[in-house]
Amino acid sequence: MTTQQIPVVVLAGFLGAGKTTLLNHLLRSARGTRIGVMVNDFGDIGIDAMTVAGQVGSTVSLGNGCLCCAVDASELDEYLEVLTRPESRLDVIVIEASGLAEPQELVRMVLASENERIVYGGLVQVVDAAEFRATRERHPETDRHLTIADLVVVNKADRVSAAELSAVRETVGGLAGKAVVVDASHGRVDPELLFDRVVPEDEIEGQMSIEDILYGPEDEAHAHPHAAYETVSLTASTPLHPRRLMAFLDARPEGLYRIKGFVDLGAADPVNRYAVHAVGRFLRFYPEPWPAGEERLTQLVLIGSGVDAAGLRKELAACEQNGPQDAPDEHSMWGVLRYVRQSRTDEEPDES
Ligand SMILES: Nc1nc2c(ncn2[C@@H]2O[C@H](COP(=O)(O)OP(=O)(O)OP(=O)(O)O)[C@@H](O)[C@H]2O)c(=O)[nH]1
């Protein structure tokens, strides 16, 4: 079932861009979310900040429920197996690519993994705002890496002027196409951009995180992280037309980074609801039988940066089926079925 699949996020970026800093930020602000981390070595991970509960082989279990292991690419599948065991109870896995790794290779390996318990969670590319120009000159492959990213974090915003930051953002935006671009200082992006946070039962809303306590409130000059994206929730009781839904998804607007939820396709498949998971360019449907007695609703959450919420609502409303004369024909499911996983070997990173 979709709800049990663990998103695997690939975190890449040039040497020193701030990947480990961002990872540490995620670990510190994890709260109830159990994060599995794969790194090349433990070196810079802020393990001491979190009481190491135990170490087995090259896996370290952190006091806050996170698990960490040091791997090289050839061990990836082996460690995915370890991290996705039910007893690990992880909510998300983050793989930090070494600064010199080809992110596309890692993405391909995640997509090709035989592990049924994972789903690709996107490629996050970290860019050093201060070094961006020089890095591009020295390493032309930077551009290629940006073109395949799903989310680009323009980090070290504190090291450049507002004008420089917007110039870097503009260049990155041009290269990264449909990817969402956010800026950050010290890797402090909102974790919700990367995965669904689990709020612990005993946590009071608005409570300060360990991060807030350690580092103080967010830096005013670089905007509150929530300003970086918007969330649009939609519920429809009329089934969606698969063909129009696919037209919407195939042309989903720039900046729409994640889509999750369930779709009711009505007569096109009366037995199943379709769980949908999209991150960046990646899109996947998971048909699963409607739970007995459950009301048949389409429930979607769309997360993006600079998206037009009213426009999205309108476009999705236009996907609703309009009575019997609009009933989907027998071919209308083809578009949807293209994104239903048939086998574990037919995956490619650039799928849209
Ligand atoms: N001023 C400033 N320094 C930062 C920021 N983010 C990271 N740094 C510093 O930049 C240096 C490199 O950061 P890391 O997080 O280790 O970068 P990395 O991408 O993991 O580096 P490699 O593992 O070598 O590829 C460290 O000294 C960080 O403290 C930031 O936003 N602003």
Automatic annotation (TrEMBL):
One Gene Ontology term, aspect cellular component: cytoplasm
UniProt key word Hydrolase: yes
CobW C-terminal domain sequence ranges: 229-320
Gene3D superfamilies, per database record: CobW-like, C-terminal domain, P-loop containing nucleotide triphosphate hydrolases
Lineage top rank: taxon: Bacteria
GO molecular function per UniProt: hydrolase activity; nucleotide binding
Catalytic activity: GTP + H2O = GDP + phosphate + H(+)
Keyword S-adenosyl-L-methionine: no
Name of the protein described by the UniProt record: Cobalamin biosynthesis protein CobW
Organism: Streptomyces gardneri
Keywords: Chaperone, Hydrolase, Nucleotide-binding
